[in-house]
Amino acid sequence: MDVMTEERDLNHQKGRRLPPAWQVLLLIVLFTAICAGFLLADETDSQKPEKANWQLAENWTPDKTHDLMFSTSVIPNWLPDGDRS
């Protein structure tokens, strides 16, 4: 009985590990992803920030958006079957 228990434990431990070829492949994929992340991060940091578009921002001032909005107040209209009728 002890032999069967030891054999079951060994099989359980063997099932948890990836085969060596998969371990190498996983390391290569992780290394490639990390390197690509660093390379892409360097490219985005070196870009110049865009200039402010003041003409576009002028269209969204409170004076110009006042006509677009009917009201900013909220009037709750509860459903008749709800608790808050």
Describe the structure.
It contains four helices and no strands. By secondary structure, the chain is mainly α. The mean pLDDT is 77. 59% of the residues lie in helices and 0% in strands.
Number of strands: 0
Order of helices and strands, N to C? HHHH
Shape: flat
Query: Structural class per helix/strand content?
Result: mainly alpha
Low-confidence stretches: none
Q: What number is the mean pLDDT?
A: 77
What gap, in angstroms, lies between the N and C termini?
Answer: 71 Å
The Cα radius of gyration reads 32 Å
- Beta-strand percent range: under 5%
The number of helices is 4
Main beta-sheet strand count, sense and barrel state? none
Estimate the helix proportion, in percent.
55-70%
